[in-house]
């Protein structure tokens, strides 16, 4: 016959496990709920960060030069298509365009292809070309051909 002490001990342990299970089940539910809320918040943060990055890329492209080189307050807008159209309008080659801008022919080709952008120091010369006509360009190229090289 079992000892009353051992039966009492087993019953106390059983009741303790039952009470413990009841309190931990509620904690497990709360923990699961918190984890799902955290995952949803992380997804939302990631979406918002992507949106901010997308917007900052868009504003960086459309904003005027950060150095503020435009004294009149006019923003210089550059596009590869515009540079090609400007060169064709003036009826000059890429080599002549490079000579006018003071850059290499390869730079002009890369700017026109869109694989690179001119640096801010080249923007005033490009903007000046926009205001020139074919005669002005021909005169400027003639001056450049007559001038001694600085090499």
Topology:
Elements: H1 4-62, H2 80-90, H3 94-101, H4 105-113, H5 123-131, H6 134-146
Helix pairs in contact: 3-4
Structure overview:
This protein is an all-alpha fold and 151 residues long. It folds into two domains: 63 residues; 67 residues, 434 Repressor (Amino-terminal Domain). Helices cover 72% and strands 0% of the residues.
Structural class: mainly alpha
Number of strands: 0
Radius of gyration: 37 Å
**What oligomeric state do these chains adopt?**
single chain
Termini gap = 114 Å
Dominant shape: rod-shaped
How much of the sequence lies in strands comes to: under 5%
CATH top level of the largest domain is Mainly Alpha
How would you summarize what this structure contains?
The chain has helices spanning 4-62, 80-90, 94-101, 105-113, 123-131, 134-146. It is an all-alpha fold and 151 residues long.
Q: Which features does this protein show?
A:
151 residues, mainly alpha, 434 Repressor (Amino-terminal Domain), 2 domains, 72% helix, rod-shaped
């Amino acid at each position: 016959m079992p000892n009353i002490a051992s039966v009492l001990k087993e019953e106390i342990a059983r009741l303790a496990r039952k009470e413990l299970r009841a309190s931990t089940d509620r904690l497990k539910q709360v923990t699961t709920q918190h984890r799902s809320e955290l995952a949803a918040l992380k997804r939302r943060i990631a979406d918002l960060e992507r949106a901010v990055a997308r917007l900052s890329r868009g504003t960086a492209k459309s904003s005027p030069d950060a150095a503020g080189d435009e004294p009149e307050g006019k923003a210089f807008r550059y596009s590869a298509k515009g540079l090609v159209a400007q060169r064709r309008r003036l009826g000059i080659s890429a080599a002549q365009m490079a000579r006018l801008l003071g850059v290499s022919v390869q730079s002009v080709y890369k700017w026109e292809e869109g694989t690179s952008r001119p640096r801010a120091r080249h923007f005033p010369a490009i903007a000046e070309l926009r205001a020139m006509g074919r005669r002005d360009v021909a005169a400027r190229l003639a001056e450049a051909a007559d001038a001694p090289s600085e090499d």
